[in-house]
Design brief:
Helix content: 25-40%
Distance between the termini: 36 Å
Strand content: 15-25%
Shape: globular
Order of helices and strands: EHEHEHEEHEEEHHEHEHEEHHEHHEH
Number of helices: 13
Largest sheet: 12 strands, mixed
């Protein structure tokens, strides 16, 4: 299974993809490693006779700095929490949504006010959920019906959170009663930070990728984890007693990624639209789901059926949802600085 978010903290892989098929020199996509898989852009290949060219990054701030330093590409993958910073950097041009036929089929819950416009800087394409994965043989379901399980001393040393500021603060905001971080006040930010600080002594570790998390859960070293949805079906398929509780009283989170149109790209603007339209096509839904992602195209998602969404941990839920939509640069930087202090024990 390809995992987008496990690459957020990975070592950067800068360079062109060495794909087996022919590459189109008229379109360079700046992306996480794994998205060069031809299965993700078959419609682009069918129209243009080749796959796009790719260059890779490992982390979004690193990608932004590379672009600001003069690296040129045509489109880039980015997750929603970083979008405002990228927009304010001046390196983006808006997408013309009239050239994106599936734009009106995108899930309105994933769009947010800043991107649901005739001209949008960010087109959401793929999403997943973050919720509580737990050992069903040692943790009763009642314990994970609240996010306060992370502060429960009964599980001290058997808990893990992702080493990812967006996911950590999504949990903390939910646990302190906030379901929209775009409008978080200073008081709400401090309450979330204090909650994370209280959880820190209970943690065994901050996990950095899904392979590490799966190992921690498989051995029983970890009993409770704030986890991405792709971990759950993989471990269940392998026979491990793992549950995935998205309907805690306080709720769970959805993360969201998509593509931005880079200003002054060296390639073809028309092919940039070919790429985004190929990725969003409903026919891509099953391919993305096989890799652990939901597609933002509601018609495409509907073709998979309810059971496929349940099995992947992406079904509609009857509980609050914090969508990881774009936030202000100031708030994201405050969260990043505070998270580093918390992890260091301060």
């Amino acid at each position: 299974m390809i995992t987008l978010k496990s690459l957020l903290g990975a070592t950067a892989l800068t360079g062109l993809a060495a794909a087996a098929g022919a590459q189109d020199s008229d379109l360079l996509v700046f992306d996480y490693s794994g998205f060069e898989d031809p299965a993700f852009h078959t419609n682009y290949n069918a129209k243009n006779g080749a796959d796009p060219s790719f260059a890779f990054f490992g982390e979004e701030d690193e990608a932004l700095q590379k672009l600001l330093s003069g690296f040129k590409a045509d489109v880039s993958h980015v997750c929603a929490g970083s979008v405002t910073k990228w927009v304010e950097s001046g390196i983006l041009e808006a997408w013309d949504t009239s050239k994106i036929p599936d734009f009106d089929k995108l899930d309105g819950n994933l769009l947010g006010e800043d991107v649901a416009a005739d001209n949008a800087y960010f087109i959401p394409t793929d999403f997943g959920s973050t919720a509580t994965a737990y050992n069903t043989e040692e943790v009763p379901v009642e314990a994970v019906k609240t996010l306060q399980v992370y502060t429960d001393p009964a599980y001290a040393g058997r808990i893990t959170l992702p080493d990812n500021v967006d996911d950590a603060y999504a949990l903390a905001y939910l646990a302190t009663g906030v379901t929209n971080w775009q409008n978080a006040t200073d008081e709400e930010f401090m309450a979330a930070s204090d909650w994370l600080r209280a959880v820190h002594p209970n943690l065994r570790t901050y996990w950095t990728d899904t392979a590490e998390l799966a190992q921690l859960l498989a051995t029983g070293e970890i009993l409770v984890a704030w986890a991405w949805n792709e971990t759950y079906p993989t471990m269940v398929d392998e026979g491990y007693p793992i549950g995935f509780e998205r309907e805690a009283t306080e709720g769970s989170s959805l993360w969201l990624c998509g593509y931005v149109n880079l200003k002054d790209g060296p390639g073809s603007e028309d092919k940039a639209y070919d790429y985004i339209n190929s990725f969003l096509n409903a026919s891509n839904a099953a391919t993305l789901m096989d890799a652990g992602y939901g597609i933002s195209n509601t018609e495409g998602l509907a073709t998979l059926g309810e059971q496929a969404l349940i099995d992947a941990g992406l079904e509609p839920i009857d509980a609050p949802v914090l969508a990881q939509l774009p936030m202000s640069v100031e708030l994201r930087e405050k969260q990043s600085e505070e998270f580093e202090k918390i992890k260091a024990g301060f």
